[in-house]
Amino acid sequence: MKRPIYNLKFPYYCNELNIFQYHFTRTPDYSDKLNQLQHLGSVFSEFKISPNTGKHAVTGFVELPSPEPSAILEWSGEANTALMDILLLLSLFTGREVFAGEPGTESFGPEAVITRDPRVYKWGGILRASPIFKASSDEPYSCNIGWQETINRVYGLIRSQRWQQKYRGGYFLFLARQAFQQQILESAFIQCWTIWEHLFAILNQAWLSSRKIRTLSSTEKIAFLLVNFAFTNEVDSESAKRIESLAEIRNRLIHFGRFPERGNVHDNALFFIRLTEFLITTLTTLDSRAESLAQPRFTRTSPIIEMFDNQLGCLLRGKLW
Hints:
Blueprint: E1 2-6, E2 16-19, E3 22-26, H1 30-36, E4 43-44, E5 48-49, E6 58-63, H2 82-94, E7 99-100, H3 125-128, H4 145-159, H5 161-166, H6 172-180, H7 185-204, H8 210-215, H9 218-228, H10 237-256, H11 265-283, H12 303-312
Antiparallel strand pairs: 1-6, 1-7, 2-3, 3-6, 4-5
Helix pairs in contact: 2-6, 6-7, 7-9, 7-11, 9-10
């Protein structure tokens, strides 16, 4: 049994993907369907892509295993399958809302109303750039099988009992999908802040009361997570002041509906969103050289570290900023 897949952008020169027990293939008219999606700029690689307002399009099909394995993430409803988990990961790692049509159909009918957003995600670029590159052959136009291997490794980690217990079912992945979608800076900043609050709560609820978690200062929560995930060795007084300034931005936005009109507020808010992207990348343990689940670290030569350093001019080792 097959299901149509909407908005999945396959890696260049990859006609198929094998993720967990599911086999994804491109549609015969994949290049035309790809051009129907939203594109914000011109690209010429495997296909020539022109800027396009875009719409939903069936770009592939997925072969369903029998029986289908159950989902590991905590979806609402019943009879949820692993395909739902995988489509969530594909959305995060491609920056588009990837979803499936009904089994045995080519697409939704002409009268169907699709409420999902067809636009490219505005945020989450660090996560999308993190999969490893591994060519399938020495040919100049070979498939990047490293992308498929990355998704499989991430999903294998997510399905592990240890990861599920540590991160309480991985609800932060749902929060990340909402935070990275097309929206203004203010909304993305608040939703990213929610992710940090959520992670602090689930990592400390075994020994902190709910009241203590609510009343603890945001500065202390952010500082704890930065050290816990080895983003910095310590949070000194100067770094603590920067975290406090981020908390002030958050408080001003919550109570007055807009950022404070001073200094580099917008740059700091953007930095925090990028830091959240890096946090999600770390929690899904993309680098095979990560030392452990409890302290996921990246080597100095890791491509994701290099990209983050180059984009933001900041090292997440030693001092925080």
